[in-house]
């Protein structure tokens, strides 16, 4: 285990099994359709690349970068688009792919954006849900695991851009961010 972690919450095998299960669910729910999966960079990059391999209906992929945490463990509250989609979502069945829903601010912003851009349908899939962090009332349509009220890293999730490459997910020791 990485020395900056307090403990591991989900090992690689557990994550992969859940992603496979979520892919199978999406394949059933989107039978006969060609959904557009939108990966919210950077956090969701690892989840997205594993998830699409587990979906067996035709899909398309696009990417969007959003940032509100920066170098902090607390949301700045200001959601900014750093990089936008390549193609319009109008008339598409959109699936927003996120790593975590915490305050819900990112997701509320994204869902409103997709509705404004006239997507035919918008669903949210997030690997992790942290209900204790919620500031706006929004829930993912699909999620993998509920996580405790702690800052987690690994499998795409970062603190100040670090730890995204860990193949497992764990709780970051609080002295790592308390001391900067
Ligand atoms: O529900 P919220 O409180 O809005 O938090 C969730 C969002 O915050 C993180 O992104 P971040 O802004 O850290 O960008 P990153 O994915 O590039 O790390 C995470 O990847 C989600 O997109
Ligand atoms: Mg981040």
From TrEMBL:
<dbReference type="GO" id="GO:0016757">
    <property type="term" value="F:glycosyltransferase activity"/>
</dbReference>
<comment type="function">
    <text>Purine salvage pathway enzyme that catalyzes the transfer of the ribosyl-5-phosphate group from 5-phospho-alpha-D-ribose 1-diphosphate (PRPP) to the N9 position of the 6-oxopurines hypoxanthine and guanine to form the corresponding ribonucleotides IMP (inosine 5'-monophosphate) and GMP (guanosine 5'-monophosphate), with the release of PPi.</text>
</comment>
<dbReference type="InterPro" id="IPR050408">
    <property type="entry name" value="HGPRT"/>
</dbReference>
<dbReference type="InterPro" id="IPR000836">
    <property type="entry name" value="PRTase_dom"/>
</dbReference>
<comment type="pathway">
    <text>Purine metabolism; GMP biosynthesis via salvage pathway; GMP from guanine: step 1/1.</text>
</comment>
<keyword id="KW-0460">Magnesium</keyword>
<keyword id="KW-0660">Purine salvage</keyword>
<comment type="similarity">
    <text>Belongs to the purine/pyrimidine phosphoribosyltransferase family.</text>
</comment>
<comment type="pathway">
    <text>Purine metabolism; IMP biosynthesis via salvage pathway; IMP from hypoxanthine: step 1/1.</text>
</comment>
<keyword id="KW-0547">Nucleotide-binding</keyword>
<keyword id="KW-0328">Glycosyltransferase</keyword>
<dbReference type="InterPro" id="IPR005904">
    <property type="entry name" value="Hxn_phspho_trans"/>
</dbReference>
<protein>
    <recommendedName>
        <fullName>Hypoxanthine phosphoribosyltransferase</fullName>
        <ecNumber>2.4.2.8</ecNumber>
    </recommendedName>
</protein>
<keyword id="KW-0808">Transferase</keyword>
<keyword id="KW-0963">Cytoplasm</keyword>
<keyword id="KW-0479">Metal-binding</keyword>
<dbReference type="InterPro" id="IPR029057">
    <property type="entry name" value="PRTase-like"/>
</dbReference>
<feature type="domain" description="Phosphoribosyltransferase">
    <location>
        <begin position="13"/>
        <end position="159"/>
    </location>
</feature>
<dbReference type="Pfam" id="PF00156">
    <property type="entry name" value="Pribosyltran"/>
</dbReference>
């Amino acid at each position: 285990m990485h020395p900056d972690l307090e403990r591991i919450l989900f090992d690689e095998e557990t994550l992969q099994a859940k992603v496979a299960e979520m892919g199978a669910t999406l394949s059933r729910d989107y039978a006969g359709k060609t959904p557009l999966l939108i990966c919210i960079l950077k956090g969701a990059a690892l989840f997205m690349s594993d998830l699409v391999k587990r979906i067996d209906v035709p899909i398309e992929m696009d990417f969007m970068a959003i940032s509100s945490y920066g170098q902090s463990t607390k949301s700045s509250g200001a959601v900014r688009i750093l990089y936008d989609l390549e193609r319009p979502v109008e008339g598409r069945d959109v699936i927003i792919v996120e790593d975590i829903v915490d305050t819900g601010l990112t997701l509320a912003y994204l869902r409103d954006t997709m509705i404004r851009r006239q997507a035919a349908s918008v669903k949210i899939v997030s690997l992790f849900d942290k209900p204790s962090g919620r500031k706006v009332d929004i829930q993912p349509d699909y999620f993998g695991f509920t996580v405790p009220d702690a800052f987690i890293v690994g499998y795409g999730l970062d603190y100040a851009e670090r730890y995204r490459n860990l193949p497992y997910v764990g709780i970051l020791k609080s002295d790592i961010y308390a001391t900067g």
